[in-house]
Write a structure and sequence with these properties.
The structure is a homodimer of 349-residue chains. Chain A has 349 residues and is an alpha/beta fold. Chain A has helices spanning 5-12, 16-23, 31-44, 50-56, 78-91, 108-120, 133-145, 170-184, 203-218, 237-250, 264-273, 288-295, 307-322; strands at 61-68, 96-103, 125-128, 150-153, 164-167, 190-196, 225-231, 254-259, 280-284, 301-304, 331-333, 337-339. Helix content of chain A is 45%, strand content 18%. In chain A, the strands form two sheets. Chain A has a six-stranded parallel beta sheet, sandwiched between helices. In chain A, α1 (5-12) crosses α2 and α8 crosses α9 (203-218). Chain A binds a DNA duplex (16 and 16 nucleotides) through α2 and α4.
Amino acid sequence: MLTGVKEIARRANVSTGTVDRVLHNRTGVSEATKNKILAIMKELDYQPNILARRLASKKVLRFASLIPSVSAETEYWDAPIKGIEMAEAEIKQFGIVIDKYFYDQNDKQSFVKQSNNILKTPIDGILVAPIFIEESLAFSKLCNLKKIPQVFINSDIPNESRLSYIGPDLFQSGHLSAHMVNYLVASGDKILIVNISKEIDSYHHLMRKEEGFIAYFKDHQKKVKIIKTDITPDTDYPSVAKRLTEVLTEHTDVKAIFVTNSRVFSVAQFLQKTNQEHIFLVGYDFLPGSIEHLKNGVIDFLICQKPQEQAYKGIMALYQNVVLNGDVEPTYFMPIDVITKENYTSYRN
Amino acid sequence: MLTGVKEIARRANVSTGTVDRVLHNRTGVSEATKNKILAIMKELDYQPNILARRLASKKVLRFASLIPSVSAETEYWDAPIKGIEMAEAEIKQFGIVIDKYFYDQNDKQSFVKQSNNILKTPIDGILVAPIFIEESLAFSKLCNLKKIPQVFINSDIPNESRLSYIGPDLFQSGHLSAHMVNYLVASGDKILIVNISKEIDSYHHLMRKEEGFIAYFKDHQKKVKIIKTDITPDTDYPSVAKRLTEVLTEHTDVKAIFVTNSRVFSVAQFLQKTNQEHIFLVGYDFLPGSIEHLKNGVIDFLICQKPQEQAYKGIMALYQNVVLNGDVEPTYFMPIDVITKENYTSYRN
DNA sequence: CTGAAAGCGCTTACAG
DNA sequence: CTGAAAGCGCTTACAG
């Protein structure tokens, strides 16, 4: 009452409609009245009532999400969908709808196509997992031109003007993995790093983890031998098994294996089938297949970064910015969680 | 339009005021019209518009929080306050205010007094850390009589009708601690469990962790010797140091120490001062003093359970129930987080 | 037991 | 460039 648009209008000797115009930075207000109103707003420290605003406005706000589609090999992306849906349920009463777009993680063109589809629609905010660097950068630029705020999850793109990144600090997560492995090995032991990925592009992502892992042992008193192998482009189980057989035949003394992504379940499967469960195994992500191997002891640790929460927080960051006009942290590193046989039951992915 | 109170009123041939009366289960409506309106609501699957409701209603909703006050020894309780304030900032636009009450963790009477103070005010929901079992039970009963929903954090009270418990699964967290210690010790090693607490009552809480810890090694192939000591009622540093000196003089071969609460920082301090950093150390909670000792390697692991998020979620659960009339999970176990030198920087307490 | 009217704090056409 | 009026979907007195 003492601070609403009515009061501002009264003090400025204008109608509430005019106040509303400057509030939303719309055209059709003289500089003079605009400045007068702005001054009064500042004086009153005017805070719009979001309830009233959303109730009065019939305009629905549209957010779009663009993430990889779920497949047998990319079950991981189930969690972000859930996160998006949770956020949607929470904010739909504010007149927000979320259009969900998916692309094929192994096909850049599908990303380009879907991002173009999004830009054809009127959209107020975008949540995207920018797996393909160049294509994502191009998309981001178009969004900036249209002044559409973007939030990135899962991995970041360097040097780009997005609203926020919400996801892992990849280097640190590799570092932590090494720290965990450090408890399992002795000086002189041999450690194998395994990257499993179809797309060369995704390597950027995995490489950061590998770097963090190697950096840990570089200046550590415990000296270990680190070897590595990339399994690409074929990543089906037979390909994984074939390569691991080769490597582990050449290096019969591998004490621990670090897999840089969720494909750790394939490696676990292999170790189990070949009775090599004595090799310590550390990998990524909270997937049913991996949890099974955590239970039966083939996998020792999983590093997880709450993909569901990443997406949830991503949508809420858009909401915070677009609906509440609030500030958003430009970079929000998710906690790096260590999952073991002992705590997986209460883990919220 | 097709589903609001107006439409219901039209179909039932009554005014919106009457619809509002049955909506809020107020008196002064004949059974007949009430049933008619109820039927139409069900038919339409009527969902009230929360925005409109909160905007129209001038009634503010009051939640109360009742947790231990912060002191040098109980810095831990800083985090829940932050969580409460975060939630408050988020929901105050819905006309919710939160009254914060504090009690002395070492004084049951202060809990009784503060809980009585709360009940003197008109309150719509309560968040409480029920450290004192009997007093909390009594308080809970009074709340139930007044139909005030209660959410518990930090620790649960058995067999009581609360809206929700949000906090650790204590037994499991002890179990996980043992799992971590297991990586650090060998068969035959000696492990010391340390409970540090002023109030005997708090032991219930610590005992559950101890039980989980011991249970882990009970049916484990690796046989270890577990000894324990309780430091009570004096818990200042000199008392801790004195007792540890005694124990570690008697048992010169202790390989690892498990402290069942945040007082691990006192133990760390002692180990550092007495040059016994070679003893592995595992404890609880993300406090600055402990983080320092995590950094310099005196503490190996901290087990944390996001006290800030517990309180945040607790308030949001009340909001969910009271404002949105939504369902709330009766028990929500927080993830059991493992914090090390490697991942503490990105941990959100 | 029930209804008519005003109002919550905004936004939205429409008219000038 | 600006204002008057209606309306978003509820709740709140007040009158009967």
